[in-house]
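INFO batch 0412 | record 1 of 1 | parsing
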Amino acid sequence: MVVVCQSSCIGILGGGQLGKMLAIEAAYLGYKTAIYDPNPLSPAFDVASYRFNYSFADTQQLERFAKFCQVITYEFENIPLSTLEILIAYGAHIPQSTLSLQIFQNRVTEKFFFKEFESGPVPFLKLTHLNDLDYFIKQNGYPVIIKTLSLGYDGRGQFGVHNAVDFKKAALFLKANNFECIVEKKIDLDHEFSIQIAKNVRGEVVVLGPFENIHKNGILHQTYFPARLSALQKRYLNRQAKIFSSVLPDIGLFTLEYFLSGNTFYINEVAPRVHNSGHGTIEAFSHSQFYFQLASVLGLPFPKKIKTSPFVMTNVLGQHYENVLKNFKDKNVYRVPIKFHFYGKDDAKFNRKMGHFTMLGKVDTKHIHYCETLLGPLKNNKINFESFDKRDVLMALTNHCQTIL
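INFO prediction complete | emitting tokens
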């Protein structure tokens, strides 16, 4: 077992907000970080000890990166496999290996991997011709959803087919993507959930969640913890996560996303990394998802107990950014336990994730509504706090202080 000592340099492939938050957590633990990303405006460069602003195909710089860092991890799963192979060839220490990326970079290999589990995927088919889509619809009916095999996230790379008119448009989508797609049956969703499991080089395992996720237009809007599930359902997801970890030999942190339709869970996808739905763990858990990804690859021990608080996490998209920046400066906003995170991106584009905020407290209608209010302009610079029970706020603050201690 390799334990990476403090003052060592952690290499992080990818410089988005996830890489930025990993680098911040690494600094808390006493480590330096080197961020490798082709984008010169990567947010993680703002907090990195060292910057590697080069192509993922630059062999010379990858060799330098491999020798510069004592351990390497990644912030997202779409790092080219060839990049990791080059790094490994130059002696890089990458505890997570490439197996997870080989499985989860491609929706076909991912879906077939899921078929090994009790909560398998929704019905799907790999498309090679328009006739395949026609066959699938005849077998399963409308609606269906077409997804590209790779690089699809936040609603990108998807096309819904609800009727014959959409079917004709789907032909253009498939041709534009060279039929590198799958089709899935679109089921009636009651709720969406995620659960995280981390496994370190010591063989220790910890589960975070489950979290309840609310999406709008294919993009995560809010996450609630605790998830509004029965105790039996929570135990079921916890057990599924541990089975997943036992089947997959890789270490690291994994985020499993599930659909719930009626009484049936379907596994949707897996991210072999930290995830947007886990951001609330920064404030609400004694050890965040970022700690567990780093601890997994550094050889650090996992805590035996994790202190948690209820939270509502809300994403800030480009269209919300201006309003939230103004609200962030309003002292009245902080009459409840809330923390804002801004990612430092250069351009507030529509539907682009610019930040998030986490509010500690009960997951109920009034707290959820309050978070929704902060995405828009505050009328007359006033907020209605009368509906908040002071005991709720005090309990959230008490739990948070205990977490910090």
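INFO post-check: Residues 189 and 241 are 21 Å apart (CA to CA).
INFO record closed
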